[in-house]
Amino acid sequence: MGFAFGYPLVQVVRESFYAGNFASPIWVGLDNYKGVIADPEFHTSLLNNLKLLVAVPVMLGLGLLIALVLNDRIRGGRQYQAIVFLPYVLPATAIGIAFSFLLQQNGVLNTALRSAHLGVLAQDWLGNAHLAIVSVGGLVVWQQLGFGVVVFTAALLALPPETAEAARIDGAGWWALQRRVLIPQIRPIIELLTVIQVITVLTWVFNYVYVLTSGGPGYASSVMELYIWRSFSNGANGTAASVAVMLLGMASVLIGLSLWVRRRAVAT
Amino acid sequence: MGAAAGGGDVKRATGGRVVGLLAKHAFLVIICLAALYPLWFIVSTALKSNAAYQLNPTGFPTHPSFGALRSIVVDQPLPRWMLNSFLVTISSVAVSTLIALLAAYAIVFGSFRGHKIFLSTSVALMVVPPVTLLVPMFVFMVDRGWVNHLQSVIIFYSGLLVPFAIFFLTNFFRTVPHELIEAASVEGAGPFTVLRRVVMPLSGAAGFTLVVVQAIWVWNELLIALVFLQDESARTLMSGLAQFQGRYSTNQPLVLAGALVSIAPVVLLYLSGQRFFVRGLTAGIGK
Q: Which of residues 127-156 of B touch A (CB under 8 A)?
């Protein structure tokens, strides 16, 4: 672990103060950081990561709803759960490619919308500078949904049945039972998963963006990881390292938060 | 429900329950269709000729053609990529599991100072974004001339997997009764013998779960493979596929045949041991 994490973590901070190629690095102080902060492409990338945060409540909210429905000991529950979880294990690359074809200007989704006389809803999902990141968010939700479902189902299953039984005897309706009795009891797990998925959409979406839009059109749907990759591919190692350090800073805060929330979730 | 409420109420109540039940099933079926459709799209398109696909992209492949699948195996470097992916996956998982096995054993049964800090460091490292380690690791591999060689990604992946593997195995080892270990130690067995003879035979299901989860992670990884393996013949399946997408954008059945081949092992593994997946992939959330 010392080698795989310690060495590069120290090294990436060092490199962020240098420019030039690996063989003859030049000390530039904070210039890499200044350059990045002035770069509109970086602004867009950061903003897109923040926009992707919207995907978190969507996937967790929908996931929770599915878990609550499954929790009613519904027939075929296990089969439903197995299907909903399946996307989570699939390679994002292969799935992203399929989505890139489905969402093309003349792809399956638009064709279906037009033939259903909903042509007005047909959009250039990947080519429109505003919509491209929304499409990425959609793909993230599609793949990550099952994770929440499985975690929430397990948490609900672990609850003592007595409280729900008591509420039912008191005549609580379905919604009241979920909202007042069940959801509050699994709240620590919901918080933990929220932090984990926030980390995911801020630091772990390269796959989705790379195959779905390549950050396009232009750099309209770029994210920080893609910015690092692109700077790095263009030989601007110092720039890549400085963004990596910023990303690491953000991640550290969230990792600290996750450790704290985890302790609470485990305690209950 | 009290008998005094009368038959009418009961009937209404059950009528409401039936509607509610139908609504729940309808909801779940819609979700499942949405989850499965992209997969069906990949399978059905991979079985069409490009001409048939152009004519009707969504239709059922009434005259299935194996042209695309044959072409990716015969005309494209896909078999090579697949072999690379298998080699990388097996090696990385083996290395990381071995390291984690020893570390977790020391944490749970050993008595070394600072094992708590070591464990929480592991938990924190589980979520360090790999992209932040990319540049220094690349420099390191360039210095050693390992870029475009599989060992570059094997080393990197193994390191990235170790924290989760330690976390996972520590949790599992804690469920092994201490008396068993003590009994074996009293009889003079050293730590390696205890690990091999006592702990590992108990770890079948947990070990399989851990291996599956790590294998899936390595198999699906794109960014590191893309950066470290740039030669056509050194690519893994994922980085090769990403390249395919751009090169054959006008032949979608061919690209999706490649996607199908990359998905198939994962789906087969999933179908054979779904519970292991669920347990392992959600282990990061548990205690």
A: 127-129, 131-140, 142-143, 155-156
Interface of B with A in 75-104 (CB under 8 A): none
Q: Residue A3 falls within a domain, yes or no?
A: no
Is residue A118 domain-resident?
yes
Contact A262, B123 (CB under 8 A): yes
Indicate the number of domains in chain A: 1
Q: Say how far apart CA B101 and CA A233 lie, in whole Å.
A: 37
In a domain, A2, yes or no: no
State the average pLDDT for chain B: 86
| A251/B128 touch (CB, cutoff 8 Å), yes or no | yes
State residue B121's pLDDT score: 85
Instruction: Determine the pLDDT at residue A29.
Output: 82
- Count CB-CB contacts under 10 A for residue B38: 23
For B136-194, the pLDDT digits (tens) are 899 889 889 999 999 999 999 999 999 999 999 998 888 888 888 888 878 877 877 88
With contact defined as beta carbons under 8 Å apart, do B92 and B214 qualify?
A: yes
Residues of B in contact with A66 (CB under 8 A): 27-28, 31
| Best mutation target, B127, B155, B244, B251, to test chain A (most A CBs within 10 A) | B127
pLDDT above 50 (res B195): yes
Instruction: Compute CA B99 distance to the chain's CA centroid, rounded to the nearest angstrom.
Output: 19
Question: What residues of chain A score a pLDDT lower than 50?
Answer: none
CATH topology of domain B69-285: MetI-like fold (1.10.3720)
Does B28 lie at the interface with A, CB-CB under 8 angstroms? yes
CB pairs under 8 A between A and B: 231
Q: How many Å lie between the alpha carbon of A187 and the closest alpha carbon of chain B?
A: 13
Give CA angle at B224 (B144, A7), nearest 5°.
55
Element (H, E) at A182: none
- Comparison of pLDDT for B150 and B273, the residue scoring more: B150
CATH number, domain containing residue A78: 1.10.3720.10
Of these ranges, A144-148, B7-11, B118-122, B125-129, the one predicted with the greatest mean pLDDT is A144-148
How near does any CA of chain B get to the CA of A239, in Å? Answer: 10
The domains of chain B are located at 3-67, 69-285
Distance from CA of B285 to the nearest CA of A (A): 7
Closest among B114, B287, B280 to A192, alpha carbons compared:
B287
Cα–Cα distances in angstroms (integers) from residue B182 to residues B110, B169, B177, B190, in the given order = 11, 19, 9, 11
Q: Nearest by CB to B222, from A12, A196, A206: name it.
A: A206
pLDDT tens digits, residue range A149-195? 999 999 999 899 888 888 888 888 888 889 889 999 999 999 999 99
Task: Determine the length of chain A.
Answer: 268
Query: What per-residue confidence (pLDDT) applies to B189?
Result: 78
Task: Give residue A63's domain range.
Answer: 30-267
Contact predicate A268/A188, CB 8 Å: yes
From the list B41, B131, B220, which residue is nearest A98 (CB)? B41
Residue to substitute from B220, B285, B287, interface A, most A β-carbons within 10 A:
B285
Whether A154 and B32 lie within 8 Å, measured CB to CB? no
Residue A117 lies in a domain: yes
Q: Is the pLDDT of residue B8 over 50?
A: no
The reply to whether residue B38 touches residue A142, judged by beta carbons under 8 angstroms, is yes
d(CA B165, CA A83): 26
